[in-house]
Amino acid sequence: GNSVTQMEGPVTLSEEAFLTINCTYTATGYPSLFWYVQYPGEGLQLLLKATKADDKGSNKGFEATYRKETTSFHLEKGSVQVSDSAVYFCALSNRDDKIIFGKGTRLHILP
Amino acid sequence: NAGVTQTPKFQVLKTGQSMTLQCAQDMNHNSMYWYRQDPGMGLRLIYYSASEGTTDKGEVPNGYNVSRLNKREFSLRLESAAPSQTSVYFCASSEQLASSEQFFGPGTRLTVL
């Protein structure tokens, strides 16, 4: 079946540090991959997505590349800000089933 | 466009009381979902509706019922609330069930005493 595994948090970084949040998946076929972000007190919102192998999704300085050979979709940002503090969810959606979310990674950025 | 709206934003119930959480979307989406989010637990799917007129159980359906009233609205009912149902509830919608991103409402924070 389909599944998503992402690194457990919390992740604590200083402002301007480099961020990586790992995400790997198991799926049949060619799923679409997503990163969602949840700011405190809010619902999830789509951060970026990629729909086929080698696609790079990007938004607000965040990037993730769809790597089929390693079944990964790691989230990266070159220089994080305090305002990036949130919970990040990796997710996949396959043509035969609804979207599946990872457990989420809480990110704390210290000023 | 309001996107996905949920009412109420906050609710406190006593054990055994019933209530209905309302959700509506204005994006003409076919599929709608109810999740609960507990501290440190991520999202868990309660029920979903692939299209108007259909509903299916998710990962944690016990203690809940749903109604897909029309294409826009999908309600979640707690018939006899229990403290274990204290959680934040999110409604979401998507254009179709598969290969489709979901759009989330702002959530309802429910406390059962």
Give the % helix of chain B. Answer: under 10%
Characterize the overall form of chain B.
globular
The largest sheet of chain A, given as strand count, sense and whether it forms a barrel, is: 6 strands, mixed
Model regions low in confidence, pLDDT < 50 over at least 5 residues of chain B: none
Question: Overview of this structure, please?
Answer:
- The complex is a heterodimer of chains A (111) and B (113).
- Chain A has 111 residues and is mainly beta.
- Chain A is built from no helices and 12 strands.
- In chain A, strands 2, 5, 6, 10, 11 and 12 form a 6-stranded mixed β-sheet that branches. In chain A, strands 3-9-8-7 form a 4-stranded antiparallel β-sheet, with no helix packed on it.
- Chain A is globular, with a radius of gyration of 13 Å.
- Chain B has 113 residues and is mainly β.
- In chain B, 0% of the residues lie in helices and 51% in strands.
- Chain B is built from no helices and 11 strands.
- In chain B, the strands form 2 sheets. In chain B, strands 2, 4, 5, 6, 9, 10 and 11 form a 7-stranded mixed β-sheet that branches.
- In chain B, a hairpin with a 6-residue loop joins β5 and β6.
- The mean pLDDT of chain B is 94.
- The chains are: A mainly beta (111), B mainly beta (113).
- Chains A and B meet through β6 of A and β5, β9 and β10 of B.
